[in-house]
Design brief:
Number of strands of chain A: 10
Strand order of the largest sheet of chain A: 1-4-5-8
Distance between the termini of chain B: 55 Å
CATH topology of the largest domain in chain A: Butyryl-CoA Dehydrogenase, subunit A, domain 3
Distance between the termini of chain A: 35 Å
Number of domains of chain A: 3
Shape of chain B: globular
Strand content of chain A: 5-15%
Number of domains of chain B: 3
Helix content of chain A: 40-55%
Largest interface: A-B, 44 and 44 residues
Order of helices and strands of chain A: HHHHHHEEEEEEEEHEEHHHH
Largest sheet of chain B: 4 strands, mixed
Radius of gyration of chain A: 21 Å
CATH class of the largest domain in chain A: Mainly Alpha
Shape of chain A: globular
Oligomer: heterodimer
Order of helices and strands of chain B: HHHHHHEEEEEEEEHEEHHHH
Bound molecules: flavin-adenine dinucleotide
Chain lengths: ~375, ~400
Amino acid sequence: MARRWLDQEHEIFREAFRRYVQKEIAPHIAEWDQQGQVPREAWLALGRQGYLCPWLEERYGGSGADFGYSVIIIEEIARAGALSFMVGLHSDIVTPYLHAFANEEQRQRWLPGAASGQSILAIAMTEPDAGSDLQAMRATASKDGEHYLLNGSKTFISNGQCCDLVIVAAKTDLQADPARGGISLLVVEEGAPGFVKGNKLKKMGLHGQDTCEMVFSDCRVPAANLLGREGRGFAYMMEKLQQERLVCAVMSQAAAEAMLRWTVDYCQERRIFGRPVGQFQHNAFKLAEMATEVELGRAFLDELIEDHMAGRDIVSKVSMAKWWISEMANRVAYHGVQLHGGYGYMEEYPICRAYRDVRVHTIFAGTTEVMKSIIAKRMGL
Amino acid sequence: MDYLLSPEQLAVRDEVRRFVKEQVPSRMVREMDQGELESGRWFVEKAGAAGILGLRFPKAYGGRGLNWVADVACMEEVGVLGTSLGCAYAMPSIVGEALVRFGTEEQKNKYLAPTLAGRLYSAEGLTEPRGGSDFFGATTTAVADGDEFVLSGQKRFVVGARDSDWFLVYAKSDPQAHPHKSMSCFIVERDFGVEVQNIYQLMGTRGGGTGRLVFDGVRVPKANLVGELHGAYDIFNRMMVPERLTSAAGALGSARAALEVATRYSTRRKAFGQTINRFQAVGFMVADSVALLDAARALCYVAARAADGQDDPRRIVSEAKKVTTENCWQIINNAMQVMGGIGYTTVYPIERLMRDARLSLIWTGSNQVMNLLIQHEWYKEVMQGGGKARDVEDDALTPDEQEKVYE
Ligand SMILES: Cc1cc2nc3c(=O)[nH]c(=O)nc-3n(C[C@H](O)[C@H](O)[C@H](O)COP(=O)(O)OP(=O)(O)OC[C@H]3O[C@@H](n4cnc5c(N)ncnc54)[C@H](O)[C@@H]3O)c2cc1C
Ligand SMILES: Cc1cc2nc3c(=O)[nH]c(=O)nc-3n(C[C@H](O)[C@H](O)[C@H](O)COP(=O)(O)OP(=O)(O)OC[C@H]3O[C@@H](n4cnc5c(N)ncnc54)[C@H](O)[C@@H]3O)c2cc1C
């Protein structure tokens, strides 16, 4: 099927980037999983090639490319099985906050580093007691002259250990009613006094992703690091969560496509009872079902990408895509492992890692249940 | 309330429950999952000393003369520890089945009794590089030579390969014969010269020393042939029962444990001003899980009764294996969803149980292999045994015998 948002230049770019991924990323996945982190050099290398934040204007170090290029980058990294390397989070989830809500002075300060990879970005919304229910966050930031004093703890922060800049959501007005009107976003820089990155969280998957806790104790953040206006933080997040969910859906979709391909390949090679595994009708039909779901996801997602690029409202549909495609990717992982037999359970097979990695896709960036509650609300329920 | 077990069965289950609760340090479970410890031997030693291995086997060999229902109830308890220790516990029950049913008196005394006492550590090797599902396609050979057989070939994915004292191994003793008459079963001591290559890196079920065995002209005394020469077909068919029942029962325990953790968590965790169990999305996910668990349990216990009976239990046992492992995977997956982000981390054991449980749909015969047997036996039953109950075809609105003639 033609992907309408792709033109020939996108395809040429994809070819080049795919080769890059094959050479510079794919061979290191296992090693990065072992190390629990993607080394900075891998970020810098992407930056040198112009693969970070390609959509930024040239004056900030980008290439002024459209969102399609971002999609291609996210897809190709996921397709290689490097789900721990959260380039999309950096380029297309966090950087857009800086671009959209920062003033010119802040943009000059922060954006070039984001594009070069000198500055790796993270965003800290979740707290130990506030995940789905972000309004319940307890972190506070109180104005103290030219600074804010930031207090609180955040958890599950992706790129948490390696980040140089983290956007932190905190309450600047505890009296606000509704509570969301008191939330603001502050940009905290590595080394800020009172900012401590906690230990890496051990997880079922995404071992190469340095997800961690963060603690802020009387952390002094210059007032000049407030992003946008005080009290607007929640609204900013609601706006930017749309693209965040789209990025996640793109990741899940590309992962599902990759897992399907690995499984088809395996089922054609592996012989059992004298014929390829894929020649048994049950297995052939299972693969046919998986391929159907993958195609349905692809068609829906492509339309959504197009809508998003055209600036249309995607709130309901992106919530649908986020939950359905992430669940679908998990179904593909489940059957993919099964079709590999005992080999699917061996860490040396990519399906094994992907199975562990995609499980979190139905949880982070808004759980499946939260997506459904958004959709239901928009249906008037 | 338990509707499935008698007071005596409940008593032995409670004994194993206490053992699991009090005798198994969390540290050991952790070390196995982290691959710092690659053996379940310590656990088998303890369980053997406590007299809880192979409960259904005769007292003369160290069992308790109980039945499959009791065994399944106890296996379920050990399953809360995950698949690796579950397998360590199940193994004497699996290899023991072959010895009790098909072994000589000498074999029972020499191998079964010390295995049930936890002094010998055992493993089973069926799977080969060319396939696990196609048992009779094996290529490992056993050639008679004087008073011995000479074994050559490889077995793959063998839990306990690393340090078992003896292996129950199947090999082709008559490669030319019909596959069903081509294989024999042997007791092979490690010291006969079994080599271990490669300990696998696994998604879960870690710490059991799962590895590849190589038999390079290993000489096995004829006294170690189990059952008839070329007679492994019957043994294989019976071995399905302990293999499948234990993997099903173990999964029950893992799923129940995960569900209890998630259930408790959902009464403490708050979002949007209430505990999350009060959202139907969560409460009903838990309800669905309990129903899946009870359905699987009921089927497992029916299968255990069938295994205790005289008729061929393989169909119902295979159904129990398939349904239970699928339900239990779903339950653990639900548990993880209920927990949100924290369930994905090692702060809770859900992620380990989730990695562990994935195996149960693959090993001891994949669930597709279960379907091969289920379809086969069911067709046989319907085609041979039909006509006993009312034939509802006669109740059709427009019965027309002519329309039912198919060329
Ligand atoms: C690997 C990983 C990376 C992450 N990266 C980041 C990051 O970079 N930055 C960041 O800020 N956060 C991050 N997160 C946090 C993530 O977004 C949260 O885990 C997620 O939003 C869920 O929140 P929670 O874990 O607190 O679950 P909870 O909110 O406690 O949810 C528990 C359960 O309750 C259900 N539930 C909650 N509310 C409702 C409702 N109203 N109706 C029905 N069901 C409900 C949920 O669906 C879930 O099943 C990450 C998490 C992980 C695991
Ligand atoms: C951790 C672990 C521990 C294990 N422990 C042991 C052990 O201790 N001893 C031992 O002997 N083995 C053990 N096994 C092996 C296990 O039993 C096999 O992996 C299993 O039987 C499947 O065989 P396979 O891996 O060769 O898959 P294959 O047989 O190659 O199967 C591949 C796929 O094809 C499907 N398939 C096969 N045949 C058919 C068919 N006719 N119709 C439709 N679909 C079909 C399967 O369901 C599967 O999805 C272990 C495996 C693992 C992963």
